[in-house]
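[Archive record]
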Amino acid sequence: MKIGIDIDGVILDFERTMNTYAELYDLLILNKSGAINNKFSYLDRYDWSKDEKNNFINNYLVYATINVTPFIPLAKNMLEFFELEGYEYEFITARGSLLKNTKDAIITLFNNNGIDINKIRFMVKDKVKSCIDNNIDIMIDDNPNICDNLRNNKIKTLYFRDKNKEKLIEDEYLKEVSNVGEVIRYIVNLNGLKNKKNVYEKVLKK
């Protein structure tokens, strides 16, 4: 089985970090009155001009990636679980599309944390096509629009949903999860557990 993994919102808690920065930028820098809608992207949630969006991107995206954003709890343990159980995986991300330096920031961060950068597919604009072209069996993503599109194309999808994100109807192709424990449970329920002792000792008992 081959697993596709989004980076922001699944491996890195980047969406939560940028939502916080966006709220403070809107309040303290722009002196505006807050979000005007509940769209997924923090860049589309406020009444910002193109220049205001660009200033936000240039000032915070790279800095926050390297210096502020934590990993999703036990995300690196999840990667170790995949490796111990013999699953192929790769990261499928739009990183680098909005700002090239955000790609370099991920490379730096992953290198510093022992995560294989050769498994990353950057600047992916069409995740359905990427999953089909690269024989992905299950995709893990936190964007509801992408997850719905994957499901509609009959690609099994784990929707890594934060409580404030849009609720989607679950079916045979889409399952909601909220932490990496639920991801691992889904995989184990699907395929069983081959190396229980090693998984316990190397993934959980740390």
The helical segments are 14-29, 50-67, 75-84, 100-112, 127-133, 144-152, 180-191, 196-204. The mean pLDDT is 94.
